[in-house]
Amino acid sequence: MKAFTWPARVYWEDTDAGGIVYYASYLRFLERARTEWLRSRGYSQRALAAEQGVLFAVVNVTVQYRRPARLDDELQVSCSAKARGQVRLLFEQDVYRGVVTPGNLLVRAQLQVACIDARSLRPRRLPGFLSDVLLREGAAAFAVNQERV
After folding, report:
1. Catalytic residue annotation
2. Which whole number is the average pLDDT over 54-66?
3. Do the Cβ atoms of 107 and 40 come closer than 8 Å?
4. What is the C-alpha separation between 39 and 2, in angstroms, rounded?
5. Which of 24, 30, 73, 96 could be a cystine partner for 10, CB 3.0 to 4.6 Å?
6. Measured between alpha carbons, how far is 104 from 97 in angstroms, rounded to an integer?
7. What residues make up the domain containing 141?
């Protein structure tokens, strides 16, 4: 199963004075891709907060910057998630220039995201629907990997 990908373009505001993407701008690209990953599964951040009292907070980030992106580059930001216990998700995300191929990899990141209660801002269990989504995606990825063996 292929990872979810979201297209992005590098704008002036994403770059430094030399037209190179500023390192912290990649965090915005990663955040937007995770939001779109969730939206592609039928859930919006706003609705989850308002209707189920669920928010997500990044608690850990590891980023490897391999190559720079530049002004006007077209990017593909990938996103795949795995449950890490009852409260946390682990996201593996990559940023590519143009087509998703190993030679176009610019950034590789791992992020841990905690599910928190919108009122108390304390950790809470992942909602059942999200656990179900992750189980389905994990089962589909497992089936694909078994076909390759």
Report:
1. 16
2. 97
3. no
4. 17
5. 73
6. 5
7. 4-148
